[in-house]
Amino acid sequence: MIKVENLDITFGGGAQRVHAVRDVSFTVASGESFGLVGESGSGKSTVLRAIAGLTPGWRGTMTVAGQTLSQRRDRAFHKQLQMVFQDPYGSLHPRHTVNDILKEPLVIHRMDDGERRILRALDEVGLGPAYRFRYPHQLSGGQRQRIAIARALILDPKIVLLDEPTSALDVSVQAEILNLLSRLAREHDLTYIMVSHDLAIVAHLCSRIAVMNRGAFIEEMSDEQLRTGTPEHGYTRQLLVASKGYDRAAIDQFVEFD
Amino acid sequence: MDKPLLNVENLSVSFDTPKGVVEAVRGISFQVGQERLGIVGESGSGKSQTGRAILGLTPGRVEADRIEFDGINLHKAPARTIRAIRGRRISMIMQDPRYSLNPVMTVGWQIAEAYRVHTNATKREAKQHALDMLTTVRIREPEKVYGLYPHQVSGGMGQRIMIAMMLIPGPDLIIADEPTSALDVTVQLQVLAILDDMVRDRGMGLIFISHDLHLVSSFCDRILVMYGGQIMEVLEAGALDQAEHPYTKGLLNCLPDIDRQQGTLPVLRRDDAWMNRKGGAGGDVP
Ligand SMILES: Nc1ncnc2c1ncn2[C@@H]1O[C@H](COP(=O)(O)OP(=O)(O)OP(=O)(O)O)[C@@H](O)[C@H]1O
Ligand SMILES: Nc1ncnc2c1ncn2[C@@H]1O[C@H](COP(=O)(O)OP(=O)(O)OP(=O)(O)O)[C@@H](O)[C@H]1O
Ligand SMILES: [Mg+2]
Ligand SMILES: [Mg+2]
User: Fold this and answer.
1) Residues B63 and B195 in one domain
2) Are residues B22 and B164 in the same domain?
3) N or C end of chain B, less CB within 10 A?
């Protein structure tokens, strides 16, 4: 479904040059959920944004649903591939109501039945019709993220790129969203790439997991390997230790990996 | 413990909306000493509004018998007094980091400026201090990041930049609203270790708002569990697994477990009876 080969991305030039993604290759089968973990700034969002067509100037080859991608994407591409952004504040227009936000993709893609789709999308993310005419600033952080997810799902895409979809959510809504994502994947045969720093979440939703460090893939493993704590790379093992909670002695042992 | 740093009595925050009054916080009381106090609870339970009300940073209506910090009742203090305390003696790390950074200024300039408004430092001293602070919050290549604009930094870098800005004046109390939710787990713990040191070495107080129950339980000294604008229970942090309230237990159940494969995750079953507590009991410094 998705094939990425030798993806390489740099930003800026001179002293400000950042080599954000270094020669990354992976494939995701149709209906599969692929997880991406790794340290902050390691290039996870940049990989997703490049696939979604939001990062110009990438090098390499990317194929989605049999089509080799160029730098520009057309409308049909966005109907089958949607992205949920990491930052639910930046991604919702502050002067648009929830209704406006959900209606916009329907208008762009000339979908009918808007009323029913909007109400269904709100219902699916656990918000009732009472939220339909609220503005983003009138919602809590978690409520905003649910709107962002509703917006991505409203076009019935085949592929959804999820950038930390639950990091702004409380655990109860997180469980609801993870159940929702699992159910939608089953019912609509969706393909996911999910970025998360929570290893338990990635192990829960994804069957294959790649670990990124400094722009490169350092290890790929199954959910089972992550669960049984048998990753190969020292960096991944350190991530596993860190996911067990705050332990001052362990933190002082952390090392940097290059 | 000695006199608390902060004493909040009967705090309420409400909003008038076209659909009626939203009661975001309902008469809660708690104290914060030189400790790490966690506030957990589901989305919309009033955690952020509680933090913001302390510093008068909510657009909602705040009512309280007292919000006392170092002998000053912040709730009744003139705006000038609050402004002098805000940022310098009490810092708030907001939940929405990039929202609170100025998009047209480099992040380094913003940290340096945060230092300059609270000291008489020269521009050069402020810049050096800002670079040191970026190193403290574990930003790699601080010189390079200094010159970036907010949209050029990753989510987790943005959060650490906010933390650097808030730590730079050396406050007595920090209110940190989901300060590490965008960080990967190792950096998250390293940043918490910095806050931990400030509590231990400088006697700072920390209010740590988070929905990560395991993290709060392993990091904080005490936890307030909030639901519907009220405090359901107060726990010694290490004793999260001994929580009594069905709400707290329900929250713990929702977490995916890395050690085993689960099909559908349990979700919270809310009970109307939870809303009938009066006064938001507890929260005293032990
Ligand atoms: N538009 C841009 N201009 C310059 N540098 C950028 C830009 N976007 C991203 N970067 C840089 O690319 C690197 C990777 O960023 P990215 O957002 O992909 O990280 P990430 O792995 O998603 O991190 P996080 O977990 O913190 O969200 C970072 O060093 C970041 O500063
Ligand atoms: N400007 C506003 N107008 C109306 N209601 C508001 C406003 N701001 C917040 N609220 C409501 O106040 C309640 C408490 O919000 P708050 O932001 O404190 O929640 P929270 O516990 O921090 O949630 P989250 O974990 O999602 O950040 C929510 O129901 C929210 O919808
Ligand atoms: Mg990111
Ligand atoms: Mg909040």
Assistant:
1) yes
2) no
3) C
Report how far apart, in Å, the C-alpha atoms of A182 and of each of A81, A119, A244, B222 are.
Answer: 17, 21, 25, 35
Check CB contact under 8 Å for B219 and A90: no
Does the C-beta of B107 come closer than 6 Å to ligand 1?
no
Tell whether B255 is covered by a domain.
yes
Please report where in the chains the tokens 């907001």 appear, as a residue: B94
Residues A7, A50 contacting (CB under 8 angstroms): yes
Q: Are residues B58 and B127 in the same domain?
A: no
Mutate to test the pocket of ligand 1, among A7, A42, A202, A217 (most ligand atoms within 8 A of CB): A42
- The answer on B159 and B186 residing in a single domain is no
Tell me the CATH number at B201. 3.40.50.300
DSSP B110-151: HHHHHHHTTS---HHHHHHHHHHHHHHTT-SSHHHHHT--GG
Domain final residue, candidates B115, B140, B170: B170
Determine if ligand 1 sits within 6 Å of the CB of residue A56.
Answer: no
Task: Give the residue with greater pLDDT, A229 vs B284.
Answer: A229
Encode chain B (286 residues) as per-residue pLDDT tens digits: 567 999 999 999 999 988 789 999 999 999 999 999 999 998 889 999 999 999 999 999 999 999 999 999 999 999 999 988 988 899 998 776 556 788 899 999 999 998 888 888 899 999 999 999 999 888 888 999 999 998 888 777 888 888 888 888 889 999 999 877 767 788 889 889 989 988 998 889 999 998 888 889 999 999 999 999 999 999 998 888 888 899 999 998 888 888 888 889 988 888 888 886 544 444 333 3
- Domain contains B83: yes
Same domain, B12 and B127: no
Based on the fold, state whether residues B150 and B184 are members of the same structural domain: no
Among B129, B150, B170, where does a domain finish? B170
Domain tally, chain B: 2
Residues B179 and B276 in one domain: yes
Query: Which residues lie across from A147 on neighbouring strands?
Result: none
CA of B46 to the centre of ligand 2 (A): 6
**Run of H or E residues at A35:** strand A33-38
Please tell me the distance in Å from B15's CA to the nearest CA on chain A: 10
Which residue segment(s) compose the domain that B46 sits in?
A: 1-89+172-286
Q: Is residue B228 assigned to a domain?
A: yes
- CA A89 remoteness from chain centre: 16
Residue nearest to atom 18 of ligand 2 (CA): B46
**Does B94 reside within a domain?**
no
Q: Nearest Cα to B206, choosing from B230, B234, B257, B171?
A: B171
Q: Is A43 in the pocket of ligand 1 (CB under 6 A)?
A: yes
Residues B195 and B280 in one domain: yes
Alpha carbon of B275 to ligand 2 centroid (Å): 17
Which tokens sit at B226? 């909030």
